[in-house]
Amino acid sequence: MSSITGWAASAAGQPLERATFDVGELGVEEVEVAVDYCGICHSDLSMINNEWGNARYPFIPGHEVVGRVVALGAQAKGLSIGQRVGIGWTADSCMHCHQCLSGDHHLCAESVATIGGHHGGFADKLRAHWAWTIPLPEGIDLASAGPLLCGGITVLKPFLAYDIKPTARVGVIGIGGLGHMAVKFAAAWGCEVTAFTSTAAKADEARGFGAHHVVASRDAEAIAAIAGSLDLLLVTVNVPMDWNALLNTLAPKGRMHVVGAVLEPIPVPAFSLIGRQRDISGSPTGSPVDIARMLDFAARHDIRPQVEMFPMSQVNQALHHLADGKARYRIVLQNTPA
Ligand SMILES: [Zn+2]
Ligand SMILES: [Zn+2]
To answer: Which residues make beta-bridge pairs with 126?
Structure first.
């Protein structure tokens, strides 16, 4: 028998409290990972507050884990004790459905979210299936790598899924936790990048992340001025926008791709799509292979999320910092070495 000690939410909206949970024997295909760093994603906050109605309590949030393998189940493959690994949004999937067997494990109907009925990474240790325990490449910066494992793959996945070319013009709506990583990835991919932000103070920072142009996302005239120019428009915000004006920034065959959890429906006038053969799509994170490719690309191009560090013991202060919209741009919790 074995236990995990972490920072748990006992009910919706409650501050996290340190608690220990008996987690039983390690499953044969499971890996136990000692947590060194864990990023805080906006989804952790949404789940703590049960904004999506599917949280199960008590649970330990945290799904951007950087750590070391400390125990391996008898059937856990491809990993060794002490190896540096990362775990993102998904901790397990069935491995036998068509999606899993096609390499689209992130679309598995039986997948287990790292923080969905499963204890996450604001803890000393966590467990995941070996296939979802991703080896970290040499050269990756461990302290800032956590946010790549959820946010990073979320913004890079459309480039992989839709074969976005380096000659593409890419717009990123929202320069926050996701959006600042999207700008860095799109610039490293070779694209011409336009950042859309409602915060004038972020314009210079967006250019620092690699944006070639910055457009005020509430300025109808500025948006109209770039109509018909973008091949990919990545939506990373979770608030309503002037969607039709933004759709009209797309070039013929352009795509608006949604990765921000906008809760209000997005109205889509049919003629905005039809006349120029535009697409609208969305995606969650990515498969284990997508995540490994993303990490290799990030290591090669030295793409580091811009992070603020908090000790794990100050997790509640860190969550307030995020909830207040003050995070620039991601927060990482650090465990004190034992
Ligand atoms: Zn996340
Ligand atoms: Zn499956």
So the answer is: 33
